[in-house]
Every structure is written in C-alpha cells, then in structure tokens.
Design goal:
Blueprint lengths: L13 H13 L4 E2 L21 H11 L4 E7 L5 H14 L4 E6 L4 H7 L7 H20 L28 E4 L3 H10 L2 E3 L5 H17 L5 E10 L3 H13 L3 H11 L8 H14 L3 E5 L1 H14 L3 E5 L3 H11 L1 H6 L4
Parallel strand pairs: 1-2, 2-3, 3-4, 4-5, 5-6, 6-7, 6-8
Helix pairs in contact: 1-2, 1-12, 2-3, 3-5, 5-6, 7-11, 9-10
Bound molecules: flavin mononucleotide.
The site of flavin mononucleotide (FMN) has 14 residues, from loops.
Length: 337
C-alpha cells in the first residue's frame, strides 16, 4: 500500500502472497483483505496495476492455510450475482467457511471505462444497483428452491445456488457517503472507514451503532492502518522520511485526484497531509514508532470504538515478523488480542 519507487517495495505476486498468508495464519491473524484493482494509478510504477484477481487469490490462499479468514473484494458491476454466489459458496465449502466478501459499489471511473461500464454519477443509483445485486446473491445462497428473480437490473428464470452456504460469510464494505453507510447498516457486518481524527471517529462510530440499533442491526466499524515499527522512534521517523523521499509522486497524485475529486477545495495544509499519507500507506492511520508507541496507537483506535484494523507495510514479509514479535505481545497483555 506504499506508493514507492524503492526496489524493496511490496510486489503482489503469488510467491510473496502465499508466504505472507502462511505467516499470518501461523501468527493467529484474523483475516486478509485484498484490494481489487483493474487499472493501476500510473506514475513510474503503475501503483496497484499488478494486484492479483481476488477470487482466485483468495481461493488459493484458503487452500494453503488453516484458520485465517480470507476476503474476496468484488465490484458489483464486474461480477454477475449468480457466478459470484457460486464462487463464494465453493470457497466456503473448501475452507470450512473461512471466506469473506468485501463489496465495492464503485467509485473509480477509469476502471469502469476499462471494463466498458458506466459508473453512475450519483450514489443513489450505485447503491440501488448494489442492493439488488446483493439481494440476488443472498437469495442464491439460501433459497432451497429455484426462483425467478424479478428486479430492475436482473430478470431471471429458475435461478438457484447449489451448494448453498452453511452460514452467511462475513460481509464488509467501505463507504463514506450516506448512501454507502445506509447500505452498510442494512447489509454488512463490518464497515470500513478511515481514521483521521479519533475524536471525530468516536462520534461517528457511536452514531453508526445507534443508527444500526434503531434498525435492529449490529454493525462493527474497522479501519486501515500503515505500520513503520522500529526499535527507536528516531529509526522509525528516518524510515518514514526515506519512504517519502522515494515515493512515486505521479502515482500518488493520480490516487489523490481520483479519491478526492473535490480536494482542490481543501485547505492546502490538509491536502499536503493527505498526499503524504497516501504515499506512505494509502491514507491509512499511521502507526509509526517503537513497538510500545505502535501498540499505544492501536489501543487508541480500540478506545475510539474501532473493532479492528487492517495493517499494511512497505514489505509485508520483511516487516511483519518484527510487528508480530514485539507489538502483538503488548496488545495481548492489554487484553485486545
Ligand atoms: C479498507 C478499504 C478497502 C477498499 N477496497 C477497495 C478495493 O479493493 N477496490 C475498490 O475499488 N475500492 C475499494 N475501496 C473503496 C470503497 O469500496 C468505496 O467505494 C469508497 O470508499 C467510496 O465510498 P462511497 O461509495 O461512500 O463514496 C476500499 C475502501 C477502504 C476504506
């Protein structure tokens, strides 16, 4: 997730992924969440242009691991509900129900152009489509009889899913818009949202939980974080500077432009901060410092109400062992692992 030109940056090939999957599984990590990307962000490195397709990636990882949950990240517009329902049911059967589903309703216009799809300009249409897509998927997972699906986007005859799923897989989505958050409350177990100002996050999470409660739903909130953990703070900050000195800024600017279409209206200092955070770790909450400092920051996420966080590293395979050996024990001693 680091937009870097450094030769030791993460390469998303299978050899690296399977090594990482086994290491995370052995360390007792809960889940792996992939980025689904159809077009990279350009620049010198075409950041994220090489990420692997996530259904096949997750299937092979599930076959290579024992306990960890592995998510597939799926764009509703690019995956037919009947095909997707059967893929996930197949993965659930082969993995003792360790597969999860991350639903993406769409935002990245160049990808939609590459797929030959229109990205609806308004969130109402995106999430109306996503809702019908997921209703169809759920019906395929649970209906014992063939059914005709009579929706706005799909009209089918005698559709059915076999195998069904024994239990609903964990479902997640990431959304900032009111429509995306309403979709999360109605449909998913976990909503992903960036952590920028933890006081604001605290209020946001309490409000989301309250809204879910009113609809008799349960929703947990997750965030994503980027780790630079070193024995001393000085070393961690030096590494941060080294990464910024070697960032692929052209790719970063494309990423910022696409993610924050209205960023020009932001104050300049905030824009600089967002740009730096995007280069370091895709805008994730920064866990930079000694093992104790990193653990303290994770505990502050916990205290703000986050149920968990994903972790990214410049090179996962090289850096995760230090995190595992030095940060996880502190979290365990504090009762949050
Ligand atoms: C942790 C996280 C993971 C995400 N994964 C993907 C992804 O793999 N592919 C993608 O196109 N979008 C991904 N997104 C973007 C979201 O799915 C969503 O479309 C975006 O946050 C826009 O929200 P909105 O629909 O409320 O505007 C991710 C966002 C977050 C925070």
């Amino acid at each position: 997730m680091t937009v870097s030109k450094l030769p030791e940056r993460w390469r998303a090939n299978w050899e690296n992924n399977v090594k990482l999957g086994k290491m995370l599984d052995n360390a007792g990590i809960d889940f792996m969440l992939p980025i689904a990307r159809w077009v990279g962000y350009g620049g010198e490195t075409d950041f994220h242009g090489e990420v692997l397709e996530t259904i096949t990636w997750a299937t092979a990882l599930l076959a290579s691991t024992k306990d960890i949950t592995v998510f597939a990240t799926v764009h509703t517009a690019a995956n037919h509900p009947l095909v997707l329902a059967k893929q996930i049911a197949t993965m659930a059967q082969m993995s003792n129900n360790r597969v999860g589903l991350n639903i993406v309703a769409g935002w990245n216009k160049p990808e939609y152009e590459a797929l030959g799809h229109d990205l609806p300009a308004d969130h109402e249409t995106r999430y109306e489509y996503a809702q019908e897509w997921f209703n169809f998927v759920k019906k395929l997972w649970t209906s014992k009889e063939p059914f005709n699906f009579d929706g706005k986007y799909w009209k089918t005859k005698r559709s059915y899913g076999n195998p069904l799923v024994e239990q609903m897989p964990p479902i997640i989505n990431a959304a900032g818009s009111p429509q995306g958050r309403a979709f999360a409350i109605d449909n998913v177990n976990f909503l992903f949202t960036p952590a920028i100002d933890l006081e604001r996050s605290k209020e946001e999470i309490a409000a989301l939980k309250q809204q879910a409660n009113e609809k008799n739903k349960k929703l947990d909130v997750l965030t994503f974080s980027h780790v630079i953990c070193r024995p001393t703070e000085k070393e961690a900050l030096a590494e941060k500077q080294r990464i910024l000195d070697n960032a692929d800024w052209a790719a970063t600017d494309n990423l910022v432009k696409l993610q924050f279409a209205h960023a020009h209206s932001f104050p300049h200092d905030l824009l600089a901060q967002i740009r730096e955070g995007m280069a370091l770790g895709h805008g994730g909450f920064q866990l930079i410092g000694t093992p104790q400092q990193v653990a303290d920051k994770i505990m502050s996420l916990h205290n703000a109400g986050f149920r968990g966080t994903t972790l990214s590293f410049l090179d996962y395979n090289k850096e995760f062992p230090y995190f595992r050996d030095n940060v996880l024990p502190i979290l365990a001693a504090n009762g949050i692992r």
